[in-house]
Structures are given as structure tokens and as C-alpha cells.
Amino acid sequence: xxxxxxxxxxxxxxxxxxxxxxxxxxxxxxxxxxxxxxxxxxxxxxxxxxxxxxxxxxxxxxxxxxxxxxxxxxxxxxxxxxxxxxxxxxxxxxxxxxxxxxxxxxxxxxxxxxxxxxxxxxxxxxxxxxxxxxxxxxxxxxxxxxxxxxxxxxxxxxxxxxxxxxxxxxxxxxxxxxxxxxxxxxxxxxxxxxxxxxxxxxxxxxxxxxxxxxxxxxxxxxxxxxxxxxxxxxxxxxxxxxxxxxxxxxxxxxxxxxxxxxxxxxxxxxxxxxxxxxxxxxxxxxxxxxx
Amino acid sequence: xxxxxxxxxxxxxxxxxxxxxxxxxxxxxxxxxxxxxxxxxxxxxxxxxxxxxxxxxxxxxxxxxxxxxxxxxxxxxxxxxxxxxxxxxxxxxxxxxxxxxxxxxxxxxxxxxxxxxxxxxxxxxxxxxxxxxxxxxxxxxxxxxxxxxxxxxxxxxxxxxxxxxxxxxxxxxxxxxxxxxxxxxxxxxxxxxxxxxxxxxxxxxxxxxxxxxxxxxxxxxxxxxxxxxxxxxxxxxxxxxxxxxxxxxxxxxxxxxxxxxxxxxxxxxxxxxxxxxxxxxxxxxxxxxxxxxxxxxxxxxxxxxxxxxxxxxxxxxxxxxxxxxxxxxxxxxxxxxxxxxxxxxxxxxxxxxxxxxxxxxxxxxxxxxxxxxxxxxxxxxxxxxxxxxxxxxxxxxxxxxxxxxxxxxxxxxxxxxxxxxxxxxxxxxxxxxxxxxxxxxxxxxxxxxxxxxxxxxxxxxxxxxxx
Lengths: 291, 467
Hints:
The structure holds two protein chains of two kinds. In chain A, the strands form two sheets. A nine-stranded parallel β-sheet of chain A has the order 5-4-3-2-1-9-8-7-6. Chain A has a two-stranded antiparallel sheet with strand order 10-11. By secondary structure, chain A is of the alpha/beta class. The radius of gyration of chain A is 20 Å and the shape is globular. Chain A contains twelve helices and eleven strands. The two termini of chain A are about 20 Å apart. The relative contact order of chain A is 0.10. In chain A, helix 2 (about 40-55) runs parallel beside helix 3 and helix 11 (about 235-255) crosses helix 12. Chain B folds into two domains: about 5-195, 3-Layer(aba) Sandwich (Glutaconate Coenzyme A-transferase); about 205-450, Glutaconate Coenzyme A-transferase. Chain B has helices spanning about 10-15, 35-45, 65-70, 85-90, 105-110, 150-155, 195, 205-225, 240-255, 265-275, 290-295, 305-310, 355-360, 410-415, 425-435; strands at about 5, 20-25, 50-55, 75-80, 100, 120-125, 125-130, 135, 160-165, 185, 230-235, 260-265, 280-285, 300-305, 325, 330-335, 340, 365-370, 370-375, 375, 380, 395-400, 400-405, 450-455, 460-465. The radius of gyration of chain B is 22 Å and the shape is globular. Chains A and B meet through helix 1 of A and helix 8 of B.
């Protein structure tokens, strides 16, 4: 479950040690844009040490590394892979080959560190026009790919258009990404809403992302976590309905019924799939306790 | 007839102040106060010695008192709060006699019942007439409520009013009336307006502070007290105010109308009253300009004395009607005792203020604090100073979890049912130590430099000299 992925600059110790308390499902330690070139090495060391000493606090850790065109990405990986982050987020990914380059580097480092191959996943950040058009190739480039993530800011620059509150300019890219991800059986994550103060705008943008099929959304401010979590969480009614679906199936099975219906509607495969997803989210949100 | 005299010296002479007497001051002018320093300088200049100073609080601006202590002009000190500068000097042992620390309610109670005697009260009044009717709501040094000065005025044998804004008799809308006053002095300035109150008090933007505040608001929500008639007190610190913000959002959503909010009042609480979330504000102290404007202009914003606020000697006081209070802490121990008097090295840098009063009175006392502060874990085996007894604290909220006092099992169950991160207090301690390490034990073995009295006047703890 990655309803929210919170970006934290890799060079802010107080934020790094407290990141897992801010309510996000995942936190992204950023070694790329948030860190100036002369601080890259210090940030890498800080992130590595945070990974070493702050693990196991119940929050997934993603490391955003520098683009493979840069001089930094390999050093980024060398520093963090031995500490086994959950996911690496390569940036400005434009092809399946980009993913494979990163995956091979990770494999080598996993071997060197003596950790099982495939321990670290990849969540490519797609933020160029080329990347959007190659989304399917990217999503299917490696078994390490857990999902693909749309970066709206760089993308609009590449598209020669303005980033707006309504987001019409990235509508196509959003749809394309979701479709590619689902076609490959991986998750799709939406770009952050960048106006920290505009809570209404955040709500609308998140609702739109959810309606298009995204599984979650990145956030750049801890203040956005609660809203995004709430909108990507199943409602209590949905949870109750999912329980009812499972109860009805169980009851039908006991009675030897072939066709099972609930509240006058037949329970078919998509309903069961949806109910299973909701219950899995419930388990992750509440630890499986009754609500 | 007029009570006006020409100078502070004349006032001191007029009330017959002599060596060995007790004089008192209030702290409504906070870090902008000129009056305590002004009076002590005059007294020292007159050659008086061996005075006992009962000041409701001592701030850093009162640093000159250190010299008066060294020169034996001041030989006794009674306070409810003491800032770090004077606190450090006291911890280092400059005063032979131990400082007496009380709470706001305890001070008022001890004065009212005669356990703390005052010979002369010097009351800084932002506005007064020549007969001594006074108010904090008007004038260039306005501070709003004069809540802590009521007991001084009513209980001291002699009362001197010091003002920089003398108005023609009679001052309308006075807080403390002339009947208690012996002498009035006009001076150029009683304080620095910019340091008496802040322009605005702001909600923290620190994500960790906001997380703590959010969790605290969830505790309030699931405690069962957040319903029509709800009463609430929170401090002026950024994280405490953030709790108010989250509480307001819940009140809006649920359509809840509260009865009163209390304590040090900020513009944020004023705006909550103006929006109809609370009927009334009971104000013992204003913290910002919006609070001062409100206490002056809004009849629902009422000034209350420290006695009405929190005195355990009164037949009842407002803290006893409080549902929820949000409090801070420098240290908490595994028995839920709270230290707000010393820093983690044992140096004095605070005091109870209303901490132990509201903790005792409120139905739900919530302490909010970061689990680690400047590399030091919040939770220890034993606090260096017991400011508020653990049995009066219900919940400790940190960014990494919520510890519920075992005496409050029902609340614990409610919070667990609401899927809040409830943890045993020892588990929180362990988590902090895992991140920050176990701090080296601090030992203070010197002589006693301060006695900390509980609100009922009994000795609760002592603070010892730093080696």
C-alpha cells in the first residue's frame, strides 16, 4: 500500500530521523533535486546512516537517485544498496533500457553486499515526453519494477507548457501511465501537488488521480499526507461492503450455491477482486482488526 | 485627595518599606517588564537590604536581580516560573536561601490564605488613575488581563501602582479597584511594548510538531470530551496552538459548540470564540495583540484572577471545570511525572506556571513533546525535578506514539480501538534510546537551591546546586 509517498530532502537530519512518523506509507529520501551538487556526498552518507539505524519503523523507504546521465547515480547506489532500501527511484527514465542499466547496477551491488538478488525494487520516475511514450517498455523492463511514477514538473517543461492547478496539460500522460502500468501488472503513482497551502486544490487533484486509476500519490509536504491518505483509503462503507461480499461467498459456499448475490446483485469476479483489494488495504491500515 | 507621588523612591518611602520585608510583582509585562528592575534599583540605591521578592515570574529581562542577590539586597525569592538566565545563576548557588517555586494557583492560594505574606506589592499597571483604579487593557504598555496581580493587590499590606498611562479619575472598566491601593506613581515607561506581547502567535510549521499536535487532537476526539459544552486550555507554543487548530477543524466538522477556553490567551483562541466554537474566554493572561483587543472589546472575553483560575484554596476554581488541557514538558518519567522546572542538565529554566494546576483540575491532561529533543530522549526513569505529579497526567503524546497512564484504562482502550499508536511508556523510552542512545545520568548533589511546592503548599521536590 503506497497511498502516499513523502519526499524528504536527503540533507536534513531532523526530517530523516522523523520521516517515518509523519503518516506517509512510504518516504522518499531524495538525493536528486533537493540536494545541491556540493552536498551530494554528505547527503548520501546521511541517508545511508539513516537507513542503517532507522529501519524497521513500519514505513517503506525509497531512495531517489540522480539521473543516469549524471555523474552521481552510481555513487548514490553504491552508498545505499548495502543497506537494502525497499525501492530505488531512478529519475528522468526515458526507456526500458534505462531501467535495465540501473537494475544491473543494483544486481552487482547486491551481490557485492551479500544480500539476496532482487531484494531492492525499482520505481522509475517518468518525467519526460519520451518516458511517457515509452511507459509500457519502462514498466515491463525488469521484474524489479514495482510501479511507475509520473513527475509532472519536469514533464511540463519538456512538453513546453505550463503546469497548472487543474492539470489539463498532463491529463494524457496520466492516463497513458496508468494504462501502461496496469497492462504490465504494476502500480501507478501520481505526481505531487506542489502548492503546499492550497488544500482544496490538493483534494481535487488527488480525487482526479484516484478516479484515473492511480494507486497513490507523491507528496512534497507532510501537511498533504493526511488528505491524500484519506482519499486513497477505502471508506468505512467500502470496507463493510467488502466484508459482506466475503461473508456472502462463504455462506454461499456452505450452502453449495453456484451463483451468489448480495443486496440483489450478483457477486462476480471483479467484485471479488475489488473486495479483496479493499480488505488488504484494511489489513495494512488497521492491522486486520475489526473496524 | 490624590494617591499620586512623584517617584518610585517616594512611593517606597510612603509605604514604609524596610529591610527584611517581602515585596511582590506580577509578570504580565513578561520579557518587556521594566518595573521589577526599576523598583529593585531604587531600593538598592536607598540602601535597603535583605528583601524577599515574590514575583509571579522572573524572565531573562530581570537579569539585574542577580547583582541584587549578590549584594544581599535580595536574599529570598519566590516565583512560579524562572527563565534560564536567572535560573542558571540560582542553580549555581548565588542565593543562600532556597527559592520557593509555586504554581500560579498555588501562589494565589497561599497569598489568599495568608501562607505567603506580602508587605508591599508593586503593581505595574498599563493604565491607572490617581486613586489607583487600574487596568491592563489600555495604554502604550497594554498587556490585557491583570489576572496574576489580583491576589497581590488584595493581600499585600501596602500596594503601590506604577503606571505610564495616567488617566483622569475615574478609570472606567478598571480591573483592580482603588480600594486596595495606597500609592500611585507615574513613570515614563513601565515596559517595552514589543516584548510584552508578540504581534501574532503562530502555529508551528514544523512537521514533527504538527504530527504531535495531530495525534493529540485525535486523543481529544476519542476521549469522549469533545462534545457540546467542551472546555479547553492550550498554551501559546506553536505545537500547542496546532492542537487548537486540529480541534477547531473537528468542532467545525461535527458542529460542536464549546463552553469556554482558558489560560494564556492568543489570537487563535480569540478567533475560535469569534467563530462561535467557544462561548467564552476566561483570561488570566494575554499573549498577543489580538487577545488584548478582544479582552478590551468583547464582553464574552472575561478577565479572571489567578485565584479564580486555579487556586486550590478557593471553594472552586475554573481549572476544576476544564475538560481538556494541553501541556508541555522538558522531561517525563516512566511514572508520568513531568519536569518543567529544569533542563536535562538540572539547571533551572522554567517552572510550573499553571502546569500542575490544570493537570489536576482538567478531566484530561495531555502532555505533548517530541520524543527526542536535541539528541536527548524525553522519557527518563526519574525526572530531575517533579513539577507535576504523574497521577494527574493522563496521556503523553510524541511523534512516535501515545502513552496512556495505566490509571486511565478506559481511555487507553478507546485510543487503541481508534487505531492510534498507543505504546507503553517504557516502550517509548526504549524507542528514543534506540535512536539517541542512553544519556549519561545527571546528578545534582549540592545543597538545595529551590523548593518546589505543590499547589496545596506541600513540598513536592527540591532542586539542588549544580557542582
